[in-house]
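Researcher: Please translate sequence to structure tokens.
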Amino acid sequence: MAIIPRSGTGPGSITPDGSPVEFYTLLKPRGEAELVAGVVPRGGSVLELGAGVGRVTHALLEHGFEVVAVDESAEMLAHVRGARTVQARAQDLRLERRFDAVTLGSFLVNTADEDDRRELLSACARHVAPGGAVLIEWTPPETHDARRPGRVRTDGDITVTLAALEKAGPGLFNATMRYTHGDRVWTQSFTSRRLTDDDLRAALAECGLRLDRFLTEDRAWALAVPGLP
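Model: Translation complete:
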């Protein structure tokens, strides 16, 4: 089975990576700002890579952080308020300044493209200040292995369904998510790579970062710091 291109369907704008903008405007923060606040003092600077519509950005601002929100989609960034926005691919970003924290959410590190992963983590490394923190949202292997087609979860009045899941190659999985809100339905298809803890450590080390610890009980958020073991 071949790797599928990122794509999306449904009402409203769909970004180049298949993300349905209208759907993402419905989502609420899930404690990400509190994780940052646990490792960065109030008033610190945060570079948010893949900020989207500002779901986390606005929570970070409420916690007193200075935030620069980066996304390649102008449609996404149009919803961000109160932060400096930069329309760019995170992989290509060079702001010539460093931040107390860099966040890389949305499981972007699980990209199927090894070069893409390296470029994303390199962007984190070149923008984090000495002694700073890089917070990375990823899919731990135990979570990846527990996925089953048809699995449903709800988030308020939103229903999220893993509509399809097929193996595309060694460690690679094609997935299609279906999001439902009232009579609106969106889909988002992508290929993800199953990463082990050692894979994550090696990818970070290649870019001059070191895995420090996991920040959540489900291990979905990892904390990396500049420097090698």
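Researcher: Any highlights?
Model: The radius of gyration is 17 Å.
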